[in-house]
């Protein structure tokens, strides 16, 4: 599925991306396996189901994403867009929460 990947590529539309950044974003958002993006998405959906407030979910996902990006040695370009990536994850998981059982 290319939906998450294309969403993240759109965040970097105004910048010239190197091949390394594109490869990292593909691994980060690969939906065929349990990627980092998918893990954080389901984590946020779980928190919304447990009635966590949106600002708290945003803060927790931001903290976890910072740790993950540091651990995975993410390119600096991706780290600079941290807030936008978290916003995309939280907004999409808030919409996905209503579709669950």
Characteristic key phrases:
mainly alpha; globular; 101 residues; single chain
Mean pLDDT: 86
- Helix and strand content put the structural class at mainly alpha
What is the approximate shape? Answer: globular
Helix proportion: over 70%
How would you characterize the largest beta sheet?
none
Beta strands, count: 0
- Number of separate domains: 1
Topology as a string of helices (H) and strands (E): HHHHHH
Strand content: under 5%
Number of helices: 6
Q: Could you name the ranges where pLDDT drops below 50 across 5 or more consecutive residues?
A: none
N-C termini distance: 23 Å
Radius of gyration: 13 Å
Q: What is the gist of this entry?
A:
This protein is mainly alpha-helical and 101 residues long.
What do these coordinates show?
The chain is mainly alpha-helical. It has one domain. The chain is built from six helices and no strands. It has helices at residues 3-11, 19-29, 36-49, 54-71, 76-80, 82-97. Helix 3 packs antiparallel against helix 4, helix 3 crosses helix 6 and helix 4 (54-71) packs across helix 6 (82-97). It starts with a helix and ends with a helix.
